[in-house]
Specification:
The chain is of the alpha+beta class. The protein contains eleven helices and ten strands. 48% of the residues lie in helices and 19% in strands. It starts with 7 loop residues before the first strand and ends with a helix.
């Protein structure tokens, strides 16, 4: 085990301005807005465009989209790939124009030979719309459980502060994990990563819900994690093993009350009853994952409480926006990188059979 007490960590900090709050408000309200034709027809970030698209490699068409409606964000995330700098590539386009984007393919792409490769897509702009934001009327604000614009502004500022806290903890975890990786070079078997991938994604979703991230943010981050699910699972498992070992060394324990309190907290966030949340966790086989998450949080809190911090100002540039679409860039049946290989299933079956005989 590497040294984990009195670590020197950098802590990202930021003071949110009125402009930051206004930007977040526009982003939040856009989900309740109305799409209307854009008079000048010139594409800008946050607009919505309707496109026909072809994905090509060499001279061959390997994917098509018709009448796809896309929000113009910094990243466009397909089921099987990511287009970076999407807003930059689309800015200034008009109806009838064609623009080219690069798409970095994920492990799930339908054609295995394209994994990790970059392909090109040609988008033809068919229509451009903008969002007309709703007015902050008393009736509309009841949607958020508040009564006036001042309360809405305060709620959005709190939302930004919670997101910063989440980013600070994630940054600390990454720094701790980096020191662990530097201290020990160990590989994890692929079949282990495959078996744990789905639980890893479910756990990340729970963490994001606890941090107060919106449903759109959670979906975007989940899709990004899915792009390289085995790599992100490997990093998460190394962190898991280290934090579990620290919990063991420090004799940190977990009680039934800890689990019940966590379920109640999730229930509050999801506006459901604790009984329904528990039932869902049991059905999805996530209670053990939740228990591990609580114990690791205790270990992480202990590490963070003894750490020495150097505050570092965050980049004041707005965080990259992400648009996820339920479409593939490449046609065909997508691969499942979390599917257990047949030989692993056979080995697991033989092991279970031997265990029964032994019993």
């Amino acid at each position: 085990m590497p040294e984990y007490k009195a670590l020197k960590l950098k802590r990202p900090t930021r003071t949110f301005t009125d402009e930051d709050v206004a930007r977040e408000e526009r982003r939040l309200l856009s989900g309740y807005g109305q799409l209307v034709p854009k008079e000048d027809g010139v594409v800008e970030p946050d607009d919505y465009i309707t496109v026909d698209a072809e994905t090509r490699i060499g001279g061959s068409v390997i994917g098509t989209m018709k009448e796809a409606v896309l929000r113009v964000d910094d990243r466009l995330v397909f089921k099987d790939g990511i287009a970076e700098n999407f807003a930059q590539k689309m800015r200034g386009a008009k109806v009838g124009e064609k623009r080219e984007i690069d798409i970095q393919m994920a492990d799930a792409v339908a054609l295995p030979q394209l994994r990790g490769q970059t392909v090109k897509a040609i988008l033809e702009i068919k229509d451009v719309k903008m969002v007309r934001l709703p007015e902050l009327t008393h009736e509309f604000l009841h949607t958020f459980g508040i009564h006036n614009p001042e309360q809405f502004h305060e709620q959005v500022r709190i939302r930004l502060e919670k997101r910063l806290e989440y980013q600070q903890r994630q940054s600390a975890r990454e720094q701790i994990l980096a020191s662990v990786v530097a201290a020990s070079n160990w590989e994890l078997p692929r079949d282990l990563l495959v078996r744990q991938a789905r639980k890893h994604l479910a756990r990340k979703v729970m963490e994001m819900k606890e941090a107060g991230l919106s449903d759109d943010e959670i979906r975007s981050r989940e899709r990004l994690l899915q792009q390289d699910v085995l790599q992100s699972t490997a990093m998460a498992l190394k962190e898991h093993f280290v934090l579990q070992k620290i919990a063991e060394v420090e004799k940190l324990d977990l009680s039934d009350d800890d689990i019940e309190l966590e379920i109640e907290r999730l229930a509050d966030l999801e506006n459901e009853s604790p009984r329904r949340v528990r039932a869902r966790l049991e059905k999805e086989d996530l209670l053990e994952t939740l228990a591990a998450q609580i114990l690791e949080r205790k270990a992480l809190d202990m590490i963070l409480s003894s750490a020495e911090y150097e505050d570092v100002a965050m980049d004041t540039q707005p965080a990259a926006t992400v648009q996820t679409v339920d479409a593939q860039a490449v046609a065909g049946e997508m691969q499942d990188p979390t599917a257990v290989p047949p030989e692993s299933e056979k080995a697991a079956g033989e092991e279970n059979k031997e265990n029964k005989v032994t019993e």
